[in-house]
Amino acid sequence: MNKIILHIEGMQCGMCESHINDAIRRAFPVKKVSSSRSKGQTVIVTEQAIDELQLKEVIEKTGYTLVSIREEPYEKQGLFSSFRK
């Protein structure tokens, strides 16, 4: 699985976060998506690759600005995950 971290400008409230999350869920097959207006970011967890141009288009249609995209492997965090290393 992959974790995609988006830096987004323009989120001001909880409804902004919800608006972005809903748009991403409708457009892509994701496992999890969460946004934080205070951090200015959205984190997506997905098994499939997501095209960056399509992602930018979906975000900008909502009225927000996608500043950057970073992708990294996703490691599930659980109660005993620190003991596996």
Shape: globular
Radius of gyration (Å): 13 Å
Query: How much strand content do the residues show?
Result: 25-35%
Largest sheet: 4 strands, antiparallel
In CATH, what is the class? Alpha Beta
Low-confidence stretches: none
Write up this protein:
It is a single chain. By secondary structure, the protein is α+β, with helices and mostly antiparallel strands. It has a single domain (about 1-75), classed as Alpha-Beta Plaits, CATH 3.30.70.100. The protein contains 2 helices and 4 strands. It has helices at about 15-25, 50-60, and strands at about 1-10, 30-35, 40-45, 65-75. The chain has a 4-stranded antiparallel beta sheet, with helices on one face. The chain is globular. The model has no long low-confidence stretch (mean pLDDT about 90).
Attribute tags:
alpha+beta, Alpha-Beta Plaits, 4-stranded antiparallel sheet, 4 strands, 33% strand
Summarize the structure.
With 85 residues, the protein is of the alpha+beta class. It has one domain (2-75): 2-Layer Sandwich (Alpha-Beta Plaits). The chain is built from 2 helices and 4 strands.
Write the layout of secondary structure elements.
Layout: E1 2-9, H1 14-27, E2 32-36, E3 41-46, H2 52-61, E4 65-73
Antiparallel strand pairs: 1-3, 1-4, 2-3
